[in-house]
Amino acid sequence: MTISSTIKSQIESGSWIRKMFEEGALLKKKYGEENVFDLSLGNPIMEPPEEFFEQLQYLASNPKPGLHRYMPNAGYLSTRTSIAKQLTKEIGLNFIAEDIVMTCGAGGALNITLKTLLDPGDEVIIFSPFFAEYIFYIQNHNGKYKIVSPDNNFYPDLNMLDKTITKKTKAILINSPNNPSGIIYPPELLEKLSIIINKKEIEFQTDIFVISDEPYKKITFDNVKCPEIFYYFNKSIIATSHSKDLALAGNRIGYIAINPKYKYKSEIIDGITFCNRTLGFVNAPAIMQHIVENLQEITIDVNTYKSKRDFMYKNLTDMGYYITKPQGAFYMFPKSPIKNELEFIEELKKENVLVVPGRGFGIEGYFRISYCLDDKTLKGSLKGFQSAINKFIN
Ligand SMILES: Cc1ncc(COP(=O)(O)O)c(C=O)c1O
Fold it and tell me: Measuring from atom 16 of ligand 1, which residue has the nearest CA?
């Protein structure tokens, strides 16, 4: 054995998306790229907005002295000030630069937050369906994950949450707009969550943090807005990025914002800044920080995703698929027409359509479609979706 047994078993257990990717590569080789419809990857085809390229060009033609050097681990003061200003405007609370830490994407933000908060054996509650990496992020820092199942709307089952919180619960990790379901948690749900958390904190005499993973916050449809978590939870932290809203996933730029009203916020920010350094991120990429400093008002064209959602939702529901209509992000999570979604996915594969099984997101009987793809792939997949469902209905 050369590598850690923990990592070896994590690689095996977290292999759904990779497995689909490998199978997709085989199918593409056999049938040709254009005849395989790979809806398994959440890697958006959209390019960053024009303003990004203008900023990039400006920086290249006017290099600031020291542009490529180390900087404070929390990031440039000017970038953090710009984000604090924007959040003050959007959220309506008074943020200062010290409430923000620049990170290597939302994934980096989540890791340094968990590292800061967790002692070995502390529990973190996640709501299924969840972004599969959460399990590894929590385990990276010796935490234990606890899963709360959803109701029919993909909202967490609050009775189960009530029973799942223990003395060891250190944090609850939420993700809305959600990957994979595309649903947004409404204000009433956040209100109910906060009542349960407050009650449990009193019962156990503990502090429970809410970590809100929000990289899709600006990608919402039909005038639904994502409620602000800082209004519901006092001990709360946002982990986010510009991977999706500016289509910069490969450039690894994100940030953490702490609730400006939280009394001990500077202790948390100091911990997070320290962990940014000691986990080896050191700081978020310098050029990207300079660029996003000037792009806080900009978002990719959300209507492009809305039309793709409308197209897939209408066509698939017309065929008989049951889907909770996504309100944001760029995924949908249809119910498998048969109980075992792995069997159904095999049928889709016979039609050269690739999707990810629900069990990769913590629940069986569903599958995830990513629709952040070109229209030709989406259109091309419909024939396969139709043939596969025809085998199980009528
Ligand atoms: C729910 C969720 N959280 C976090 C991430 C990681 O985002 P980033 O690329 O900014 O690290 C993703 C990426 O797909 C995601 O879907």
Answer: 179
308 Cβ partners below 8 Å, 6+ apart?
330, 371, 372, 373, 375, 378
Q: Which residues, including other chains, have CB under 8 Å from residue 211's CB and lie 6 or more apart?
A: 110, 113, 114, 171, 172, 173, 174, 236, 237, 239
Q: Which atom of ligand 1 is nearest to the CA of 244?
A: 10
Cα separation, 128 vs 361, in Å, equals 7
CA atoms within 13 A on the CB side of 169: 28
The model's pLDDT over 70-119, given as tens digits with 9 standing for 90+, comes to 999 999 999 999 999 999 999 999 999 999 999 999 999 999 999 999 99
Q: Give every strand in the sheet of 367-370, ordered side by side.
A: 331-332, 367-370, 356-357
Distance, first Cα to last Cα, the chain: 52
**Cα-based distances in Å from 306 to 329, 332, 373:** 9, 12, 12
Atom of ligand 1 minimally distant from the CA of 131: 1
Question: Which residue ranges form the domains of the chain, and what is each CATH number?
Answer: 5-47+300-390 (3.90.1150.10), 50-293 (3.40.640.10)
Pocket test for ligand 1, best of 104, 154, 174, 179 (most atoms within 8 A of CB): 179
Question: Mean pLDDT over all residues of the chain?
Answer: 96
pLDDT in tens, 5-44: 999 988 888 767 777 778 888 888 999 988 999 999 888 8
**Cα 169 from Cα 166, distance rounded (Å):** 5
State the Cα angle at 328 between 16 and 198, rounded to 5°. Answer: 90
Distance of CA 48 to the CA centre of its chain: 18
Q: Which among 110, 138, 213 is the best mutation to test ligand 1's pocket, defined by most ligand atoms within 8 Å of the CB?
A: 213
pTM: 0.97
For residue 275 the two structure tokens come to 């962990």
Specify the pairing of strand 356-357 against strand 367-370. Answer: antiparallel
Tokens for 360, please give them: 């990769």
Reported confidence tier of residue 64, pLDDT bands at 50, 70, 90: confident
Helix (H) or strand (E) holding 188, with range, is helix 187-204
Q: For 264-297, what is each residue's pLDDT tens digit?
A: 999 999 999 999 999 999 999 999 999 999 999 9
Counting from 1 in the atom list of ligand 1, the atom nearest the Cα of 104 is: 11
Poorest-pLDDT segment among 17-26, 134-143, 336-345: 17-26
